[in-house]
Amino acid sequence: MAFSQEKAASDGNKPYDPKVAIFEHIGDAHSWHVSLPLVKPFAIPLPVILYTDKGIEIFSSSNLHEDEVYHGKNDYVLVKDKIKIADETGNVDATKKVYDFSITRNVASMWLGMIILFIIFGSVSSSYKKRVGKAPKGLQSFMEPLVVFVRDDVAIPNIGVKHSKYMTLLLTLFFFILINNLLGLIPIFPGGFNLTGNIAVTLSLSFIVLLVINFSGNKYYWKHIFTPEIPLWLYIIMVPVELIGIISKPFALMIRLFANITAGHIIVLSLISLIFIFNSLAVSPASVVFVVFMDTIELLVAFLQAYIFTMLTALFIGMAVQEHHGEQHEI
Known about the structure:
single chain; 8 strands; mainly alpha; about 10% strand; about 55% helix; globular
């Protein structure tokens, strides 16, 4: 479990392994681990939803423990937080497949972020309806500059007159990434929320951007890819490069967000691990000072990565929908 390393280190059972502890915290899990000041760490079980050759099976993750077999429709064993089907001897049965659709920690934190967004924008929308023509007030006055910033400094400069068509997408991306970046800084436990540091989540966001870019592309966008105004002998080089560029743009968005958020969590967890590695409170003041400094940097990164992802998305969309000005430029 996520707190096994800290518990083992404090009990003196075995040496503290920071690598195991760090990857437990930044990875996904079937339970929600919580650590609060003056409270013993505990885990909130989450629903496990499996599909096997015997159909769908739903049960609580509290039934799953490392190196212990859970007897359901099949015998299940938890291996590095992955659910596998076990044979009669309790070993993993590689011949049987299990499809895991469980509500994991990342899914739960994503739902939490969505609920927060619905509450925030529901409240702001209600304020606008009740205060028509009046100055913003309360949460409305905090959110309006952010929305105006996305419109005036991200959408309009990069997309132009067609920006209003894509404002819903850009605002959703910006606030979804921002909220989940900030949730990752909540001191329930460093790394407890790592949604935007999950490659599957950033892949999904980038795939959406890929679809929007290419379905929005006008004839000049596709002409530039397949029939650029260059000598024919360069087509064999430039056309493959342009086709690779279709994939590389959203791929860069995926890797940038994933790498920056994950790296920040690893650094914070590594600094905290120094206390357990040296097994001494003497290093704790220096460790805490550096953790506070890194958390401050992470707060900046949370806003910066949301802005960069949204800005580059707007830039790529703008490149796909811009009008043809090829006559005004030299090759």
